[in-house]
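chain below, 379 aa
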Amino acid sequence: MIRSLLAAFAPPAAARTRKSARADSDQNPAGARAGRGRRARLRDWAELLRVSALFTVPGDALAGAAATGLRPGRGTAYAAGASLCLYEAGMALNDWADRDEDAVERPHRPIPSGRISPAAALTAAGLLTAAGLTFAARAGRPALAVAAALTATVWAYDLRLKHTPAAPAAMATARALDLVLGATATMPGPGAAPSGQKAAGTAPPAGSLLPSRPLPSRPVAGRPDPKSLMPRQDPGARASGTPGTALRVGAPALALAAHTYAVTAVSRHEAYGGSALTPLAALGATTVLGLLLARTRPTEGPLAALTAAAYVRTAALPCLHAALNPSAPLTQRAVGGGIRAMIPLQAALAARSGARVTPVAVLGLAPVARALARKVSPT
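prediction:
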């Protein structure tokens, strides 16, 4: 009887747990505030760097690697790391350069609201730029040269070109260079052997029928021509700079640039809206690009067509809504849809290049980007 009365008047276990947690919090308010402060700080930086858009970046390097006809390798990973760092550097620099404008049009942004100082944003932009160039340098000198051009384009856009008519072209150039960076880092440099194949002149493996001594430079009577003993190079693993490679890489780079140009043109009206013509033009460009990507040869299978359809679905519908009602919220949705459409576009470009695993891997980033976009705006 006494036990039942005590149980009736005793607080539930969950309530005791909450009370004990509150008591611990009351006993250590500084630690609780520090934990909340760290989480808030991380959210502020995630908003400044627009981390939901970050997952649209690695596909550039992977699509560039697919365009070369080679498998992604260590150089491709370095290129992806460089792309991620330079992209985030551009985000931090963008908010630093627009801090006065954001104070009027977007006072909720991290810098005008006082959550992140301008000096911290500029420092982050510099450090991320240095990290991106370091990654590119590990991929080789040609990749570093492309990354340097990409860096110059990003900084010129944020500091000078963003509010000029050249802004869409500058952003399109940056995105095309990002794809070229992935291709350049994947291809072997001058004098290097393709992946999985030794360069000519190195010692042959044990048991090889090739002579271990250096081959004579001239044919000797009674002996085979030294050139016939040299290992043949894989035609699909050509050195960088050949016309065929330039064409294979240039076509997807131009497609990515065209999409970026359209999205950037729409983004110039996202603060106030009011332009129906720009999203309508972007809708037309997206549709045409999707139709071109969907035209597949019988040997390519359905993957290219499916990824092209996903691209059109992601990019075109928000543009249609913005064209019918060019308000600021719908224009911002069109820009966000255009950013997220980068992922199926990269997958479609990789599929058109003949890759099979890369398009599926790139498409796997789409759900993550979509989930993060609900918490952190990509625009």
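Residues 5-21, 191-216, 226-240 have pLDDT under 50 and may be disordered. The chain has one domain: 44-190+244-373.
thats it, cya
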